[in-house]
């Protein structure tokens, strides 16, 4: 899609399906760090009880708090080089909808932003982010009250895939 075409897209109301864009519109996110302002579109599907990955496994490059795409790429590269199962990132990266295959596991910032304007999309469950805190812990976010924490990577939580449309 060209930059001109993207600039002319009119998003639906927050929490509504965005026809042709692969999911539910969660709103515009401001520029953060080296990432431009962007629309967040989350998958309509959300499997439960997927683990982040093996406890005790540090994934180099998966600690970015704002860039879930970079984290997801790092996780999948680690899997390719060293093996191991990383169900949350694998599911998110494989997700496709409306012809879009550019989904990834959301970053800590993506999920925090979503918690500021929760919609029925997220229910009240905890969701994995792509942001790793250490070899043992990764970030999760609850959308009910905005709680967040770092938890053991081998726990099972809900996963949503996200894609961006740059503003």
For the structure shown, list the relevant keywords.
single chain; alpha+beta; four-stranded antiparallel sheet; three-stranded antiparallel sheet; 9 strands; 22% helix
Strand percentage lies at 15-25%
- Secondary-structure element order, N to C: HEEEEHHHEEEEE
Number of strands: 9
Structural class based on helices, strands and sheet pairing = alpha+beta
Q: Report the principal-axis shape.
A: globular
Order the strands across the largest sheet as they lie in space. Answer: 1-2-3-9
In summary, what is this structure?
This protein is of the alpha+beta class. It has helices at 3-7, 68-82, 87-94, 108-116, and strands spanning 17-18, 23-29, 38-42, 50-51, 126-132, 137-142, 148-152, 156-157, 162-166. 22% of the residues lie in helices and 25% in strands.
Descriptive notes:
- The protein contains four helices and nine strands, in the order H-E-E-E-E-H-H-H-E-E-E-E-E.
- The protein has a four-stranded antiparallel beta sheet, covered by helices on one side. The chain has a three-stranded antiparallel beta sheet with strand order 5-6-7. It has a two-stranded antiparallel ribbon with strand order 4-8.
- The radius of gyration is 15 Å and the shape is globular.
